[in-house]
Automatic annotation (TrEMBL):
Described purpose of this protein according to its UniProt entry: Catalyzes the conversion of GlcNAc-PP-undecaprenol into ManNAc-GlcNAc-PP-undecaprenol, the first committed lipid intermediate in the de novo synthesis of teichoic acid.
Name of the protein in question: N-acetylglucosaminyldiphosphoundecaprenol N-acetyl-beta-D-mannosaminyltransferase
HAMAP family listed in its UniProt record: TagA_TarA (MF_02070)
Family membership: Belongs to the glycosyltransferase 26 family. TagA/TarA subfamily.
Keyword terms of this UniProt record: Cell wall biogenesis/degradation, Glycosyltransferase, Teichoic acid biosynthesis, Transferase
Organism: Bombilactobacillus folatiphilus
Pathway: Cell wall biogenesis; teichoic acid biosynthesis
Reactions that this protein is recorded to catalyse: UDP-N-acetyl-alpha-D-mannosamine + N-acetyl-alpha-D-glucosaminyl-di-trans,octa-cis-undecaprenyl diphosphate = N-acetyl-beta-D-mannosaminyl-(1->4)-N-acetyl-alpha-D-glucosaminyl di-trans,octa-cis-undecaprenyl diphosphate + UDP + H(+)
EC class: transferase
EC number from the UniProt entry: 2.4.1.187
Matching CDD domains: Glyco_transf_WecG_TagA (cd06533)
Amino acid sequence: MLNKITILELPFISTTNQAFTQLLEQRLTRKQNTFIVTANPEIAVYAYDHPDYRNLIKTADYITPDGIGIIKAGQMLNTPLVERITGFDTLTSLLEIANKYSLKVYLLGAKPEIIQKTVTNIQQKYPKLKLVGYHDGYFQTEQPIMEQITQTQPDIVAVALGFPKQEEFIAKYRTVSPSTWIGVGGSFDVLSGSVKRAPTFIQNLHLEWLYRLLSHPTRLKRFGALPRFLKLIKQKH
């Protein structure tokens, strides 16, 4: 059992990326159904304001501390988390495991051109995994997607529909396949090469959020949740 730290009523796992990856590898090889939520401050605030969503993501097997704001909150509450575990890093770890064992992967979400580039890049970088299907995030009905997942029984289902839609989708359909299901937000934008991730030294300085903001100023409104998140944490302190 992983140690968990509660922040705004959400139980975040407190462990290293390496240990979490090893755990996911064990669960994948055993074909254990797994639901992973990668929660940043924006998601934490949304969950705080929407009890139905909060209760839904609390059914996940693992909620990871995705964002330096979550790490800072743990410190403010005197319950420090071991390490930041991002959705992108978790997804790439899962793809590496899939490549190692020739596991089946299904991708859902993003714009049509983004998912196409993502598929191409994944097939080039991870040639041994089996990409059994994919679909962009612009669909009228979920039925064909679920039929394909039910038929192909992928080991990993990565859903990039943005919150809360991706978590609602996973919670609704995770029983159709004993997969590792993970909501990955904008990770396909990075995997496709359409968005560049911050250099490693910036990540190590915990300034990846600033790099994303400067690279894409339109994201400014999304950072509006951070001050409120910190205010809520201080109220709980």
